[in-house]
Amino acid sequence: MEIFEVSKSFLKEETYPLTDQIKRSSRAVCANISEAYRKRRCEKHFISKLTDSDAENSETQTWLHFAFSCGYISLEAKSELIEKSLEIGKILNFMINNPSKFGVDN
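^ that's the sequence the OP posted. Answer follows.
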């Protein structure tokens, strides 16, 4: 949600190229986690959706770097959001490596 809020300040001509992309990838992180949980009956499906979530998280980091390089967000905002994204990545990787802790059937 923080990324969604910060993207509101981007230039109007960035509505699709950057704003839309960063909103889509950041939302997809959450959506894929939800899908993974619902597919936890099958370990392969669970891990696949979490892997998708991790990829979207990495894409979001890339868009944050672009937003900073274009002057749309401050170094402080970029650093804070990247730090949070890295923490999300650690959690996702823990889930991927430990599916049984999340009710996944083998």
